Amino acid sequence: MRRRANATVLIVLVILLLLALAAFLRKNAPPEAARLLPESDGILYFNLRPLRAYTHFDKHPVPHDPAYQRFIDATGFQFERDLDQAAFAVHRMKNPLGPNGPLAFSEVFIGHMDGKRLSRYFASLARTQEQYAGHTIYEIPSQRRTVRVAVLGYDIVAASNAPTPEQIHSMVDRYRTAALPFSGSSLLRQHYSQVPLLSLAWGIGKLSVPLKRDGIAILGFHVPLSVDTTFIASLRWAGALHLKVEELAPNAAAAAASADALTTCVAILRAAEDNLPSRMTNADLRSVVDSAHIQHRRDHAVAEATIPVSFIEKLLTAPDSLHSLPRSPEPAANGNGH
């Protein structure tokens, strides 16, 4: 009897440990939408459910352009109402002057959606289709590029306008291993642990190509940036929306130079706002500038500020801010289709 009781206690303890481990992994692992992204030069992630709760941007009607309204009518999906998570990968093109421009993007969207209606809609736009690893990839012409779209699950859609199918194939492959909590691109594995806990939105990017000799210009003032610099930006709710941008510089001297330059930029912005008539100033921008704080810690330069909820609300209610999935073209002006 005692052995049986001991065995029962042991089983219960093992189950509790497994549940605790699962909860720990779920809490500390990158969100699924970000884990599905392919290799890239930068990542942006938005958790729209809490942002929607804080800003109520879905309660404010926004004008829908005709193409977006046809997308809603065909799929039943409305970004400002139904999108829960969005993750974007930024790909730098080797030839920025080539036909694909300087950048390409891969995206993952998670939300309340009807997979069958979305599949029918994408099929109606697709020039060709590819079957890959049990999924249909719709190849849709859009603005002199090809957008490849795959409905991965009942609530997940992946898309990419990269010039080759490598990126969309990678997202389909990652979907099959999505249960692994620490899977994802090398950029995500290396730096997600540095994203502040409970961030509603965040971004990771690495500067791996030389800029101009004097860095980048902000208001005519040059901020020096070094190759192999990584940036981590985050937006958290702590009674207000708190923005943090951290530069991981290659050395302490580079971080100090960036922090000094940013401090000067903030001082210039404050002076400019103070000397303009009140009717010409932007209240949201003034609030951000007034709350800005720059720090230098060893090889890190950190900029922090408080973002007004109204500013985020304006961004999220812009009708084309997150509508990067392909949509049907405008109907022809006359019956001849010209």
Structure, explained:
- A hairpin with a 2-residue loop joins strand 4 and strand 5 (135-142).
- This protein has eleven helices and 14 strands.
- Helices cover 36% and strands 28% of the residues.
- It is α+β, with helices and mostly antiparallel strands.
- The protein is globular and about 55 Å long.
- The strands form two sheets. A twelve-stranded antiparallel β-sheet has the order 4-5-6-7-3-2-1-8-11-12-14-13, sandwiched between helices. A two-stranded antiparallel ribbon has the order 9-10.
- It has helices at 2-28, 32-35, 48-55, 66-75, 79-82, 115-125, 166-176, 186-191, 252-275, 283-291, 309-316, and strands at residues 42-47, 83-92, 103-111, 128-132, 135-142, 145-153, 156-160, 201-207, 216-218, 221-223, 229-237, 241-248, 293-297, 300-307.
- The longest helix is centred in the N-terminal third of the chain and has 27 residues, at 2-28.
- The protein has two domains: 30-182, no CATH class; 195-322, no CATH class.
- The N and C termini lie far apart (86 Å).
- The model is unreliable at 19-24, 318-323 and 332-338 (pLDDT under 50).
Compile the SSE list and pairings:
Layout: H1 2-28, H2 32-35, E1 42-47, H3 48-55, H4 66-75, H5 79-82, E2 83-92, E3 103-111, H6 115-125, E4 128-132, E5 135-142, E6 145-153, E7 156-160, H7 166-176, H8 186-191, E8 201-207, E9 216-218, E10 221-223, E11 229-237, E12 241-248, H9 252-275, H10 283-291, E13 293-297, E14 300-307, H11 309-316
Antiparallel strand pairs: 1-2, 1-8, 2-3, 3-7, 4-5, 5-6, 6-7, 8-11, 9-10, 11-12, 12-14, 13-14
